[in-house]
Write a structure and sequence with these properties.
By secondary structure, the protein is of the alpha+beta class. The protein has a single domain, classed as 2-Layer Sandwich (Alpha-D-Glucose-1,6-Bisphosphate, Chain A, domain 4). It is about 35% helix and about 25% strand. The longest helix has 24 residues.
Length: about 150
Amino acid sequence: MTRATFTLSRSTRILFAGLASAALVACGGNERPQADMAAAQVNTIGVNSYLWRAALETVSFAPLLQADSAGGVIVTDWYANPSNPNERVKVTVAILDQDLRADALRVAASRQVAQGGGWVDAPVQAATVQKLEDIILTKARDLRRKAVAS
């Protein structure tokens, strides 16, 4: 294997399958609330541009493995905080819709801790993922407000 390629772990493949399933389920109904679509549905890149930009900014602390604006998927590489090098995290963000809505965003995180000279999977607190989603949504709404005000 060359350095430029990587293999998805079983848990990452399951995560992607789950995200794909969630996206298909979300397509089932047409009961969407009507909002200011000119401001909320900015999608020249395939997904909502406010969510996309906010997500990229939020995960900018870690190196990116994948950023697909057409499919709305951002995957970071493993990141270890210099103040805690025995722990590392990896984040996946999926933007599932062209509208700026809370249910158009899914964040998943993986965490590993150093143990016995290697890395061992460890649980991620649900509050951590929720906090990342909240940060992205808040930034996206701020970007939208600024764009509409100008």
